[in-house]
Design goal:
about 110 residues, mainly alpha, globular
């Protein structure tokens, strides 16, 4: 659910045409942010697959996964959202991140038995 809202927000911001420079002190590095978004995409996909069987349990697991991702990268939800906002103001950089995510997800899919 959160990811859906984030994607809609990203599309809205991307269409605004803003090109302000990103401020390093107020955002997560591009490399870490790409990894974080990749893990969030996987968590959201898992939620979508499992909510049919038990929506409450799937939602609980999704919230736990978000929390675990934030803990793993030693960030807060606020810093994540602030970073997302910063990258959203520069659609070209955000597109680069999502292309990297797509490549990583395709690689992971190819590794499945």
């Amino acid at each position: 659910m959160k990811l859906k809202n984030l994607i809609i927000f990203l599309l809205f911001i991307a269409c605004s045409g803003k090109t302000e420079e990103l401020q390093d002190k107020n955002r997560i590095s591009k490399q870490d942010f790409t990894k974080i978004l990749t893990e969030i995409q996987i968590a959201e996909a898992n939620y979508q697959l499992n909510k049919v069987n038990d929506n409450n349990n799937a939602l609980t697991i999704l919230k736990q996964r978000y929390s675990a991702i934030y803990t793993e990268y030693n960030i807060s939800e606020y810093l994540f959202e602030k970073t997302l906002t910063c990258y959203s103001e520069n659609p070209a950089k955000l597109e680069d991140i999502y292309l990297e995510i797509l490549e990583e997800l395709n690689f992971q899919r190819e590794q499945l038995p």
